[in-house]
Recover the amino acids of this structure.
């Protein structure tokens, strides 16, 4: 991105790293059709860290699966760097809540998986793998099997593996949802650091408002039944964040604002007729 | 959503159900004494005890056999003594017939089982990976699997004659359907998330199959083969019992004609030992390959 404007005509907008235009997703259920996402519009700028929060039933995970290309939307457009998305690809790294590591591969070979598929020399591959292992603090565990790791370590491997193919956008679906509180906090600090170090565009989905505010530059609140972007809230916090930032008035104010929004959506979800 | 959004009562303000004052005290079961370690479900026992149990389980039936034979409560032609069986075995070994028959049977198992694996593994993988293949083959195989392979012997003799092909065919029929369905099952067990993540890492369908589905399913496929290798060994003896001029099954039929039960016992022991050998070998391979399942 050199930021040069083309001569003449209106100033072209810098293409978003990721853009969703009127994305609709419907599932067939026993009686009729259930609309999970109803016209989702959102833009994630290059290098941005954006979080999507939403109550249960807001279709957060569905949204991420659509962006990853694992599901085809019923309607609307998903653009990656201005180009429409067809199916999954290494330009969008994906990390799930529970470990999806290859259990027969060591940590090193898990991280190497995506690079093994590319036409690069083994030496080049090893060099890159070594960098991501060091960046994620996994050097000492490089020879371990996934079953020997703790939950937090496994998620580090999953993140390192997704980053190794240098995706344009890193997608994380409740990545720390299954971790204990202390490990979760460590992982949040870790993810902020990885983001500043690599400059990767990140879209993270969570139901934890505190997590979203701590991590993101911008928080998108998804409404429930059907899902739609109900609000976009910028997070006015410095780039260098550590855990104590969560006790500052600025943090608490944003957090409260978003929590109220999410809670209102959650109530609406509970009130709606049982499916 | 045109209905006005009404705030639901928060959990703290929700109405409570009527009181529980009139409930009788909850009947509880008395706390049981903890069972001894050996009888606790799913608990490991000390290695020494494990070996002692193994040894006892082998030794007790053997001693019972020996005592029964020695007491002459049963006629020797019906129940030969361990000594007589040993003698018969060494005699057959020295004449070379035991080795010859064993080789014949092992050859048939290797050929028949190998053929069955060569058919069932690709078919099972295809059934496990593609719903369409599963839909097409599952009903047919599900039915064929219930037809006893031994019932095919007369038909196969008519079709293929008395030679080797009919015996190998029985083995294949006896093993191939089970091994296909079991292979398909382990392939289907590969977690969806693992496959999806592989696509997002850039893998093609062929690469997902080769680098994700196969390695994940391999230990389970070896488990299936271990179970079915035992079945193959059963079927070869059955095939040889009916029509053969060599093999361990044939040797049993011969011995039966002359009421040489000591020889029958000796052959049975050999069959058991070879089965054990196959099982141990496959288990070692399985443990090496499936170390990650820990």
């Amino acid at each position: 991105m050199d930021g040069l404007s083309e001569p003449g005509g209106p100033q072209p907008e810098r293409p978003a790293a990721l853009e969703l235009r009127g994305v609709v997703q419907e599932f067939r259920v026993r009686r009729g059709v259930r609309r999970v996402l109803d016209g989702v519009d959102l833009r994630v700028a290059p290098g941005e860290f954006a979080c999507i929060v939403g109550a249960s039933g807001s279709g957060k995970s569905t949204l991420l699966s659509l962006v990853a290309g694992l599901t085809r939307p019923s309607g609307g457009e998903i653009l990656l760097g201005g180009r429409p998305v067809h199916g999954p690809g290494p330009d969008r790294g994906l990390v799930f809540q529970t470990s999806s590591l290859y259990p027969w591969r060591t940590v090193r070979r898990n991280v190497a998986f995506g690079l093994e598929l590319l036409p690069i020399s083994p030496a080049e591959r090893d060099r890159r793998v070594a960098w991501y292992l060091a960046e994620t603090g996994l050097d000492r565990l490089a020879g371990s099997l996934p079953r020997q790791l703790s939950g937090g370590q496994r998620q580090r491997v999953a993140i390192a593996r997704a980053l190794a193919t240098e995706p344009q956008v890193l997608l994380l679906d409740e990545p720390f949802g299954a971790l204990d509180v202390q490990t979760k906090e460590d992982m949040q600090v870790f993810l902020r650091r990885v983001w500043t170090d690599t400059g990767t565009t990140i879209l993270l989905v969570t139901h934890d408002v505190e997590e979203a505010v701590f991590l993101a530059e911008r928080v998108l609140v998804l409404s429930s039944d059907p899902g739609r972007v109900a609000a976009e809230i910028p997070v006015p916090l410095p780039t260098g964040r550590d855990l104590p930032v969560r006790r500052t008035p600025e943090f608490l104010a944003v957090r409260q604002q978003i929590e109220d929004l999410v809670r209102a959506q959650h109530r609406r979800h509970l009130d709606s007729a049982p499916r | 959503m045109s209905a006005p959004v009404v705030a639901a009562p928060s959990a703290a303000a929700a109405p409570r159900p009527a009181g529980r004052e009139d409930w009788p005290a909850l009947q509880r079961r008395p706390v049981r004494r903890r069972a001894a370690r050996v009888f606790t479900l799913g608990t490991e026992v000390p290695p020494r005890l494990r070996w002692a149990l193994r040894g006892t389980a082998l030794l007790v039936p053997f001693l019972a056999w020996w005592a029964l034979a020695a007491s002459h409560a049963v006629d020797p032609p019906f129940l030969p003594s361990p000594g007589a069986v040993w003698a018969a075995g060494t005699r057959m070994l020295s004449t070379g017939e035991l080795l010859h028959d064993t080789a014949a049977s092992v050859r048939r198992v290797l050929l028949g089982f190998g053929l069955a694996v060569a058919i069932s593994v690709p078919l099972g993988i295809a059934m496990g990976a593609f719903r369409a293949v599963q839909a097409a083959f599952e009903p047919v195989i599900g039915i064929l699997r219930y037809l006893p392979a031994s019932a095919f012997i007369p038909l196969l003799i008519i079709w293929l004659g008395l030679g080797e092909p009919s015996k190998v065919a029985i083995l294949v029929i006896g093993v191939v359907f089970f091994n296909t369905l079991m292979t398909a099952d382990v392939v289907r067990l590969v977690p969806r998330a693992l496959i999806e993540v592989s696509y997002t890492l850039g893998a093609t369908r062929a690469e997902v199959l080769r680098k994700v589905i196969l390695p994940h399913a391999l230990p389970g496929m070896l488990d299936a083969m271990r179970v079915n290798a035992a079945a193959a060994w059963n079927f070869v003896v059955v095939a040889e019992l009916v029509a053969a001029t060599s093999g361990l099954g044939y040797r049993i039929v011969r011995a039966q004609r002359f009421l040489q039960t000591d020889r029958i016992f000796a052959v049975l022991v050999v069959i058991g030992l070879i089965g054990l050998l196959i099982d141990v070998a496959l288990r070692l391979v399985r443990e090496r390959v499936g170390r990650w399942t820990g």
About this structure: The two ends of chain B are 52 Å apart (CA to CA). The domain at 78-293 of chain B is CATH 1.10.3720.10 (MetI-like fold).
